[in-house]
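Design a sequence for this backbone.
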């Protein structure tokens, strides 16, 4: 008989931890929560201090029965759910179901699944932290009060299957507000003048018009440009100022949940949901040959960039041996802590720096490897020395006209030897060399090119940009971002177009109703205040019932008003412009969980449906008879194929265009590159200039 029973959340963890603890310990998995609020009813008694009614989750009866049987045989029970609010609540529910005293030393927490971390954690068990439990309970009840009151209203007034929630409603509002900004945006014209200059016979470099004398001038029209060009006399420019500086660039901090989701989206093209699924696998452990199952990263739900001294020391030893002393960081740099950061546990990092990605590649799937490498690179880079850049600024003058050139080169790569953080809007820093110039030197103008530009509207939200905005606003918690983005798409409130969110008509309608009758739900400041209230519960500053009551008193009034005054909204199906081939009735566009599709208006008598076919105006280059249409693979990736399939099997990942190659008459396609598109021939080496 095992003396001790340890309960964790997942079977993968159970297997690894049991191996680390030895024969006296039996480790079992609860498979997440065993109790929750009922799905069929509110489950919250608003008349009695918002008392929650918990029941055993459907399907968890056999799991709970097995745990109770094991508990009766054990001398002591340890509850080792994840080290966060949710994990604390799972431990509390388990304690209730298994009659464990919550004030006893029954709770064990660890930030990584390694032998040393597990053994150390069992030396320091503690009672269940009821402040953490209450904070999670308050969030669950708050979301239940919002969802189970507003959602039925939306079913009655709009259509079935809709939902509303605090975080998801704000996310939809951000997307819709951004779309309005884009539609209302009025572009403004501006110009730049780029000059091509020569120092000596072969030192080419470029410079941009700056202004007159030392005054910067903005060019708003072609007329402004012509005035400047008329003032330039001859081809000679004099170097009037040279500024040389040394600039340090610090590495990015190790990953938090939010920054991991953002960077995985940018660098690996992963959706937030996929990133968290893979991170969970890496945290819980991967089979590593003779070593058995090993946890590769620390806990992946965190808002802290803090790193343990042990991990820092290990990273320093690795950097010293692989890169040399000069690549070690000089001192500890601290990130400015935001008010909504809990700092409960460390940043996301590898459990061992010496387990480098290539050494374990054979044990990981392609996507597991790519995410682990991203986490490993980012962590190690964060412990390396800053990069040192030599920068140079030069002013060139002709009469009163000044052109300015800037250049930089890497003097010491530091962390950049391993990893450089990406952004949504900027290109990665590249070297741009200038020739050796001194004040008084003369350079020759080879060419000057004026360029017309127009200001651009704010960009639509990508997943990465939306996660970043929600975090900056203090909306939700890192663990809620991925499910939130998933929910607003499944409900049909928004859709992804070219990896950017666009609102749907349904999203507009639902948001308008919530904005009219429940303005607080969509108010960013109000939502942030609610998050702060939940944090205060966690810190023991306020009772959870008080936080809920302050919200519900006003919410109930809005609810009564909405029940009386909210009008029924009829969403009319948009005609598809063709008739059903089965019954002759008009086809209409409908919105499903995977986007728009065509269906017969005579539903349910006729159940004919078909996907929307989008022609791109190109004749099939293979059969010369069919038309090229957009299609989607099983993984929702866009490709192009002939509408005569299966008679013609032409397919292309790149978009064909309606003209032929001027060199060989072959088909031309638009090839997507990192920064824009380029027209290329599929049969020869013909390429056109890249477009941004």
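Sequence:
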């Amino acid at each position: 008989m095992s003396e001790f029973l340890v309960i964790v959340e997942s079977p993968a963890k159970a297997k690894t931890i049991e191996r680390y603890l030895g024969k006296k310990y039996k480790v079992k998995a609860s498979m997440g929560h065993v109790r929750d609020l009922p799905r069929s009813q509110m489950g919250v008694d608003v008349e009695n201090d918002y008392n929650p009614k918990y029941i055993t989750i459907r399907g968890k009866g056999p799991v709970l029965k097995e745990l109770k049987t094991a508990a009766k045989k054990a001398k002591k029970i340890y509850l080792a759910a994840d080290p966060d609010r949710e994990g604390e609540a799972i431990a509390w529910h388990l304690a209730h179901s298994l009659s464990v005293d919550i004030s006893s030393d029954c709770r064990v927490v660890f930030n990584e699944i390694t032998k040393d971390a597990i053994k150390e954690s069992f030396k320091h068990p503690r009672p269940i932290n009821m402040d953490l439990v209450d904070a999670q309970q308050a969030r669950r009840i708050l979301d239940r009060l919002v969802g189970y009151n507003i959602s039925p209203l939306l079913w009655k007034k709009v259509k079935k299957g809709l939902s509303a929630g605090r975080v998801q409603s704000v996310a939809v509002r951000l997307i819709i507000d951004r779309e309005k900004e884009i539609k209302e945006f009025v572009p403004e014209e501006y110009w730049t003048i780029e000059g091509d200059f020569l120092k000596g016979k072969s030192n080419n470099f470029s410079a941009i018009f700056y202004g007159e004398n030392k005054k910067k001038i903005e060019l708003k029209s072609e007329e402004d440009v012509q005035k400047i060009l008329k003032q330039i006399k001859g081809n000679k420019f004099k170097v009037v100022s040279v500024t040389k500086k040394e600039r340090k660039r610090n590495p990015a901090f190790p990953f938090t949940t939010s920054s991991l989701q953002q960077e995985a989206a940018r660098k690996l093209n992963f959706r937030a949901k996929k990133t968290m699924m893979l991170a969970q696998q890496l945290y819980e452990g991967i089979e590593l040959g003779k070593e058995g199952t090993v946890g590769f990263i620390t806990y992946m739900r965190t808002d802290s960039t803090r790193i343990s001294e042990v991990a820092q020391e290990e990273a320093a030893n690795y950097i010293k041996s692989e890169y040399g002393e000069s690549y070690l960081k000089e001192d500890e740099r601290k990130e400015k802590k935001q008010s909504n950061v809990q700092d409960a546990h460390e940043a996301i990092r590898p459990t061992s720096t010496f387990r480098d990605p290539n050494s374990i590649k054979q044990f990981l799937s392609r996507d597991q490897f790519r995410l682990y490498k991203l986490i490993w690179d980012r962590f190690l880079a964060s412990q390396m020395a800053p990069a040192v850049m030599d920068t140079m600024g030069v002013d060139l003058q002709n009469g009163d006209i000044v052109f300015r050139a800037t250049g930089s080169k890497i003097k010491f790569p530091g962390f950049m030897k391993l990893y450089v953080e990406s952004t949504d809007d900027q290109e990665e820093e590249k070297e741009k060399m200038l020739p050796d110039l001194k004040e008084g030197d003369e350079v020759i103008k080879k060419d000057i090119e004026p360029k017309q530009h127009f200001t651009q509207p704010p960009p639509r939200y990508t997943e990465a940009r939306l996660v970043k905005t929600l975090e900056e606003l203090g909306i939700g918690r890192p663990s809620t971002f991925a499910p939130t983005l998933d929910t607003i798409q499944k409900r049909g409130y928004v859709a992804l177009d070219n990896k950017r969110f666009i609102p749907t008509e349904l999203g507009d309608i639902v948001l308008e109703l919530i904005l009219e009758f429940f303005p607080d739900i969509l108010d960013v400041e109000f939502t942030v205040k609610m998050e702060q209230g939940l944090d205060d519960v966690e810190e023991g500053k306020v009772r959870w019932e008080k936080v809920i009551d302050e919200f519900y008193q006003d919410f109930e009034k809005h609810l009564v008003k909405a029940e009386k005054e909210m009008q029924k909204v009829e969403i009319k199906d948009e005609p598809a412009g063709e008739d059903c081939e089965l019954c002759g009735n008009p086809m209409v566009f409908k919105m499903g969980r995977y986007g728009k599709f065509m269906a017969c208006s005579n539903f349910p008598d006729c159940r004919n449906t078909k996907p929307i076919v989008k022609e791109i105006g190109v004749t099939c280059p293979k059969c010369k008879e069919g038309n090229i249409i957009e299609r989607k693979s099983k993984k929702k990736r866009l490709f192009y194929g002939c509408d005569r399939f299966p008679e013609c099997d032409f397919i292309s990942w790149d978009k064909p265009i309606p003209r032929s190659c001027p060199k060989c008459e072959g088909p031309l396609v638009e090839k997507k590159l990192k920064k824009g598109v380029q027209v290329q021939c599929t049969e020869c080496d013909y390429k056109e200039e890249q477009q941004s």
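Residues 339-343 have pLDDT under 50 and may be disordered.
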